[in-house]
Specification:
The chain has 1 helix and no strands. Keywords: Coiled coil.
Length: 111
């Protein structure tokens, strides 16, 4: 092997070492980026679980509120039915009182 071949081989080896060192540096940087990305992913996963829990709780609250409104509507409907019955009873009582008053006047009894 000639001196020139040896020097060229030495230069190639030096370049290869430099390229290897650069590749190692890039690999280390990539690993750090991957670790940061994994950490962010874990944090996002925790946030998703927390939001899912909050959503489940909110859904339960909405279900309870919906049931409460349904119950309240049912109570209002019942009160409306009772109110109508009471109005009808009062109307009948007034009519009965009017009939009794007219009958009393006709027979000469005063109240």
């Amino acid at each position: 092997m000639s001196r020139e071949d040896f020097n060229e081989l030495k230069l190639t080896l030096t370049e290869a070492k430099g390229a290897l060192k650069e590749a190692k540096s890039q690999l280390a940087e990539s690993r750090m980026q991957l670790e940061r990305a994994q950490s962010q992913l874990q944090e996002q996963s925790r946030e998703i679980v927390m939001l899912k829990t909050q959503l489940t709780a909110a859904s339960g609250s909405l279900t309870n509120a919906k049931e409460s409104l349904r119950s309240t509507k049912s109570d209002i409907d019942e009160l409306e039915r009772q109110h109508i019955k009471t109005e009808n009873n009062l109307r009948h009582q007034r009519q009965a009182w009017q009939i009794a008053t007219v009958a009393a006047v006709l027979v000469g009894v005063s109240f």
